[in-house]
Design a protein that fits this description.
This protein has 290 residues and is mainly beta. Among the domains are: 93 residues, Immunoglobulin-like (Sandwich), CATH 2.60.40; 109 residues, TonB-dependent receptor, plug domain (Ferric Hydroxamate Uptake Protein, Chain A, domain 1), CATH 2.170.130. Strands 3-2-5-6-9 form a five-stranded mixed sheet, with no helix packed on it. Strands 10-15-16-13-14 form a five-stranded mixed sheet. The N and C termini lie far apart (67 Å).
Length: 290
């Protein structure tokens, strides 16, 4: 068969389309890698700080009981990827060493947390260490990230109507003051139109007026994060702030909530502007159960 320039052009176009379709097919899987999860990394050592290789590391989600496993490599490091945010108990064990358990370790949304574990030479005991009082720092990236937990979303009044208000408590984030295109906070002096909004890793951008397409009720949000700069390419879309929310999910125990959010001028401080505009009382009442 003789290939003409027309045949060659058709083959090149077909190959380009195939590559494009493959990229589109794989892109959501890559983009959602950490958009709805967090990671744990660490090093397993003995009492002399020597690396322990081939140690078994198990992370158990306290709320659901789901188990995630890893094995340390040749330099004693382990990695647990794409874990649902929540509280975990992390255990490490190896032949000739006692089992060590790190309890109450928090995995946060869009964050790589470091959990180093030390094993003692023994075979018949378990050493338990509480991580509840510590703060797991992300020492693996230069990402500037602020997370707000479900407790903060409930207790802080700024989140009563919209969790995005909490981002104003972060350094470098301010109100746009009605200036510039789009709605929402201004990050690093950029316009709100430069922001990206996601819910469970899904695009939540309003294409007509740049800003969030829908506002999720605060009591339905499990965790909320603000990424300002140095975030990885998986987020993309915009060079401003990355605002990501995940929704509360079920656990192994029945739970529910009831709330009342009240603004009453009889016990709230009223400034001169509010007094001049006759501020009215406001109340919101709701309930939910899972």
């Amino acid at each position: 068969m003789i290939f003409t320039s027309r045949h060659l052009r058709a083959l090149l176009i077909g190959a380009a389309l195939s590559v494009g379709l493959a990229a589109v097919t794989l892109a959501p899987q890559i983009a959602l890698a950490q958009a709805v999860s967090g990671d744990i990394t660490g090093v397993v050592t003995d009492a002399s700080k020597a690396m322990v290789t081939r140690a078994n590391v198990v992370a158990t989600n306290v709320a659901t009981g789901i188990v995630y496993t890893a094995v340390t490599d040749g330099v004693g490091e382990y990695h647990l990827f794409n874990l649902p945010p929540g509280t975990y108990n992390i255990s490490a064990s190896a032949p000739g060493f006692s089992k060590s358990v790190l309890t109450g370790f928090a995995v946060e949304l869009n964050k790589v947390s470091t959990a180093d574990i030390t094993l003692r030479v023994s075979a018949n005991e378990t050493v338990e260490v509480s991580a509840a009082a510590g703060v797991a720092l992300d020492t693996t990236t230069a990402q500037v990230e602020t997370s707000f937990s479900a407790e903060q979303l409930t207790e802080l009044p700024a989140a009563a109507n919209n969790v995005l208000n909490l981002s104003l408590m972060t350094a470098g984030v301010s109100s746009s003051g009605g200036m510039g295109q789009g709605t929402g906070p201004a990050v690093g002096g950029q316009r709100p139109t430069d922001n990206n909004y996601m819910v469970e890793g899904i695009d939540n951008n309003d294409k007509s007026v740049p800003g969030p397409l829908l506002n999720v009720p605060s009591d339905a949000v499990s965790e909320f994060t603000t990424l300002q700069n140095q975030f990885s390419a998986e987020y993309g879309h915009s060079n401003g702030g990355q605002f990501n929310q995940i929704i509360k999910s079920g656990t192994n125990s029945f739970h529910g909530l009831a709330y009342e959010y009240s603004q009453n001028r009889n016990y709230n401080a009223v400034d001169a502007f509010q007094a001049a505009h006759n501020v009215q009382n406001k109340a919101q009442i709701g309930r939910a159960h899972v």
